[in-house]
Amino acid sequence: MSDVIPLVEVDNLRAGFAARPTAVDGVSFTLHRGECLALVGESGSGKSVTARTLVGLTGAGSTVRADRLRFDGEDVLGLPERRWRRIRGARVGFVLQDALSSLDPLRPVGREIAEPLRLHTPLSGRARRARVLELLAAVGVPEPELRAGQYPHQLSGGLRQRALIASAIAAGPELLIADEPTTALDVTIQAQILALLNELKTGDTSMLIVSHDLSVVARLADRVAVMRDGRIVEEGPTEQVLGDPRHEYTKALLAAVPASHAKGTRLSSAALVPQHRLREEGEGILRERPSLKRVAATATDEPVIEARDLVKSFLGSDKVARTVVGGVSFDLHAGETLGIVGESGSGKTTTARIVLGLETPDSGTVTLHGRRWDALSPAERRAERRRLQVVYQDPLSSFDPRYTVERIIGEAVAVTGLTGTARRDRTVELLDLVSLDAGYLRRRPLELSGGQRQRVAIARALAPEPEVIVCDEPVSALDVSVQAQILDLLADLQEGLGVAYLFISHDLGVIHHVSDRVLVMRDGLVVESGDVGQIFTDPQHEYTRALLGAVSTLSTAK
Amino acid sequence: MTALSLTVPRVSARLRGWRVRPGLVLGVAFLVLLVIAAIAPALLTSHDPLEISTDGAFLPPGGDHLLGTDQSGRDILARMVHGARSSLVMGLGATAIGVTVGAAVGLLAGLANRFVEGALMRLVDVTLSVPDLLMALVVIALLGTGTVNALFAVAFASIPYYARMLRAQTHVVRRATYVEAATALGLPRWTVIRRHVLPNAFKPLIVLATIGIGNAIGAGASLSFLGLGTKPPAPEWGNMLSLGIQYISNDWTMVAIPGLAITLTVLSVTVVGRDLKRRSEGRAV
Amino acid sequence: MRHLKRIAIRLAAGIGVLWGAATLSFLALHATAGDAALATVAGDGANPTQAVLDRVRADYGLDLPLHRQYLNYLGKLLTGDLGESYQQRIAVTKAIGGQLGETVQLAVSAAVVAVVLAVGVAVLTAGRRRWIRSATSGAELVLTSFPTFVLGLVLLIVFSFQAGWFPVSGNGGVEALVLPTLTLALPIAATLSQVLRTELEEVLEQPFILTARSRGMREAAVRLGHALRHALIQIVTMSGFVIGGLLGGAVITETLFVRRGVGQLMLTATTTKDVPLVLGVVLLAATVYVVVNLLVDIVYGLVDPRVVTA
Hints:
The structure holds three protein chains of three kinds. In chain A, about 35% of the residues lie in helices and about 20% in strands. Chain A is built from 21 helices and 21 strands. A six-stranded mixed sheet of chain A has the order 7-8-9-3-10-11, with helices on both faces. Chain A has a six-stranded mixed sheet with strand order 17-18-19-14-20-21, with helices on both faces. In chain A, strands 1, 2, 4, 5 and 6 form a five-stranded antiparallel sheet that branches. Chain C starts with a helix and ends with a helix. Classes of the chains: A alpha/beta, B mainly alpha, C mainly alpha.
């Protein structure tokens, strides 16, 4: 083996920008021909920057240094643009996340796929066109003739991603770099794209996968390098790193993935918290919650919320009514978590908005403690609202940008009638509940991290002492480690306060972890509902099985 | 995914906000000078802007007349200093009227039912189809020339812009998640509007109005230049410039001085306004 | 099909705007029409009898009920009759028609210069080194802050009086067109290039640009082939601003350079309170605005497929 030149050799790579001088801080790895290496890490770990140094596209104002940076034996450190252009597209293909923004929206996809052919091959226009159709067929796009003439926005997410992959492999590169190739996709589509990448791998193409998602990596990679703060903390064969991790950080990261744990187990641990945040916020963010006074009634048989046959349709831009929710019914009892899981467009968020009384259903009823929403006068309805609160996916947009943390939470506390010092004391108490100290009172949302913002959003939701909190994808925008902390926090609060959650997520792992009962939605309909154990171990509906099959849980992968 | 990378810039962003930008400092300094000239012109010049000096006409800069004298022997510096007031009155007055009326129309359209909104916005569309200056000329053709009418004309032409902006902003803010969150707390509709919708909708309008002051000063000077606004011998930069043109081939300083003053004023207001805009958008300054 | 439907809707909206403008014109005329009847018969010092006044009012149709007058007015507009100028005593259309050519020449050349300048500067400077961008945006800021007449005077002083390259005034030939064109074009170009560069810089950060670069495209090809089209969409939506700048600027530029044209006509009409003529020019401006916006909408549909097929 020693006389075979590796395709990529990286030794002590350091890269950075003015704002982040050590984005990559001494990374070394080797990639052989036909091999698939995955760089895994959370945001800010330097994995994307590392991948981009291999095509010389770290961007303006960046500096790249290394003891060795070789592609196919050739030193590419400080290579002039002209020489880089002969490598990019021709010898290294590059696939980015979300093809809707990674393909030029003003060009038909056929032209995008033909571009590397035009740049790197002597093919005539006609031959290029034929090749584009071949490529589209090869990546599993049906009706290539039709699709080649369409624009990215006219294709579904899965077809778009296939077209993007086709354009990356068009000129027959030896190395394919895929940066979060499946992140923006629904799980079933994600599984298809992973299968396609696996097919491509069986050729002699080498692959470098960049991902935050351990299950994606488990399905594709031969070897895994776990990155943190610009360094590789652990590298080895996939089975070993994911099955028997050596490094504390890898262990903690694996433990933080909610899929593999039943409700009640803690996900977060000190090893996951970046050093600078531990310094800034102290150990508080990991501490066990103090004993909490229960505000909600203990569980009774009577449900807090009864939703019956909810139907809602919206007029599309073409003036045709689309049924978004087509007859949804469920009960939510005090102190329990009902998970609603579904892919994008399944109607789960609209269902939640109807429950919150923010959207009026076309037909069907929502009953709150035996009183129907639609039978209440506006004033009565306002009075009832505080019993149902909401936590959004993007907390930042749910805060008035002019407000400080104190005013954000204080406004919600005022609903309970508290004023003056009492209001302020209660605000501090709520902050303490979500493990933030009083020092955060004067901060503005922009000055908080994503996890801190979500904590403030939870504190605000708790302020009116609600019986139910609707959580709409509350952890979807967060890194695994922060997600783990927020999920632990929500679990503690439920245990202590007895609040019920209507928990919406596209992530089956998260739903599995948090829910007592689960509703599986598709195209506005509930396809299956039941106890969490039953849904995940013995799914009855074909679609539920397809969803579960598409998710590669870490234990079953490989 | 972005959670960790967003923790960084708290302190540094604040520090950067206070970094001294030379352009901004010069702009603010010039505006301060203007305000002094407008409030207390006697602090800056001892001459009367209307007094015909016995020293003669067309004196070059220097000596007792720092910027020289004009065709009638009036002190140019005194006329410049006294002219600052009419420029500022034009800029502030026209913008105040334009913003007030525009905001009222825009707010009504943004909060009222679809019928009222449709009617108001069609009216705004119609007025927007005519260029500002032509619109101002129509007003003057109907009302007649003069300082006050010119101010009304400039104000009137700016109304549809402020109206459209505030309506658009009201719509954006009304759909914002934080407004929904406030509704979910059970706050009454008008409390939500008063507490969250109005302040956030008005914020960009105030910034836009700052830049609008500069435009109004320029437009007012243009009208005077065209002979439609403040008439000579009253000291006003636009009409000083217009008079100076007649002598431009002999002495271009009579044109250059008011021209420079107008440009610097508009430039200073724009620089300050844009800085406010960048800050309000939370961008690194 | 959707494209046609979209354009039909825009066309209807455009006609609505023109109808609105015509209605406002009618109201403005009506408010001042008393003067008109008087102005027709009353020279200086003349003291017409009530009978004479009544006859003149009847001649002008002023004795009819308001809605009849309104319908008459609209009917005349549709046949291209904008009424008669108070001062010149000729048809407004004729008065405008006689001046239109010069102004169109000036406006079109200024528009071309402005767009070419803006696109050129923006493509060359977007996302470049810090000092290049600072210098350009500084120049743009100064140019947008120059009121049109001051900019024109600066050009006059430098290029006519000092250098003597171009004539000071008049309508004669290409040389006489250079300075007015620049005066009109530069502030518009500065604003356009600001918008275009900001937009380009935003587009250049998009993932699809990274994709294009990762295929081995040249920087120039990336900018011209991918980024520019996106940025131009922004420019297309600024057509209203451009028209406003050109027509408003024409009044000042023509006055400053003593050129014949619609702008001069408008100014004279304003000074002499010749309301029909003023409103005639305004209706013309509104029509240009509506027509150009309609054309822009059609172009927009061609440039951006998302508009039509989304």
